[in-house]
């Protein structure tokens, strides 16, 4: 039987332990003896209907009341003959309280056996929790390994893109140089231009070529052309 919630508190000199199983709540009080009760599924649904809450809301509020700084403000234990009346309530205004539940705990005539059952149940659920934690750790290791592989693949893709970009720029540079050579060969041969006359044309042609290249790629292109030289 799996434990979903549990808690304990010191109330009126008694150590009170509550355990919420899948379909029931057990309440145990320990002082100079042991008292115990089980709120079954039908009774639990009845209590939830009275306060207009779901099971999860009801049991979560019960757990929070047990773990509050002053549990005695939420719970009372009264001795009524051989039994204990355990009452869970909340004061909404001075003198006005909402009762969430009233449970009668009967004395256990074999407290050692009752404690052994409770301890065994908690121990088994603790083992299950430890196993779940181990499973989570293994899953986390797998996820970490997958993340490392993904980062490595991403870095490889980025590197390949950079290499391809350099190759494309190199080819583009070669095409532009070929176009420039053809343009120079189409010049009229009747003019014998001096080197000083040719320089402005070359500069102008180079400027035209530069205008064709996006500004962000000019630096890379110059580096590529420098390597080719």
TrEMBL record:
<dbReference type="InterPro" id="IPR010585">
    <property type="entry name" value="DNA_repair_prot_XRCC4"/>
</dbReference>
<dbReference type="InterPro" id="IPR014751">
    <property type="entry name" value="XRCC4-like_C"/>
</dbReference>
<dbReference type="Pfam" id="PF06632">
    <property type="entry name" value="XRCC4"/>
</dbReference>
<dbReference type="InterPro" id="IPR053961">
    <property type="entry name" value="XRCC4_N"/>
</dbReference>
<feature type="domain" description="XRCC4 N-terminal">
    <location>
        <begin position="34"/>
        <end position="104"/>
    </location>
</feature>
<dbReference type="GO" id="GO:0006310">
    <property type="term" value="P:DNA recombination"/>
</dbReference>
<dbReference type="GO" id="GO:0003677">
    <property type="term" value="F:DNA binding"/>
</dbReference>
<dbReference type="GO" id="GO:0005958">
    <property type="term" value="C:DNA-dependent protein kinase-DNA ligase 4 complex"/>
</dbReference>
<protein>
    <submittedName>
        <fullName>Putative x-ray repair cross complementing protein</fullName>
    </submittedName>
</protein>
<dbReference type="GO" id="GO:0032807">
    <property type="term" value="C:DNA ligase IV complex"/>
</dbReference>
<dbReference type="GO" id="GO:0006303">
    <property type="term" value="P:double-strand break repair via nonhomologous end joining"/>
</dbReference>
<dbReference type="GO" id="GO:0010165">
    <property type="term" value="P:response to X-ray"/>
</dbReference>
<comment type="similarity">
    <text>Belongs to the paramyosin family.</text>
</comment>
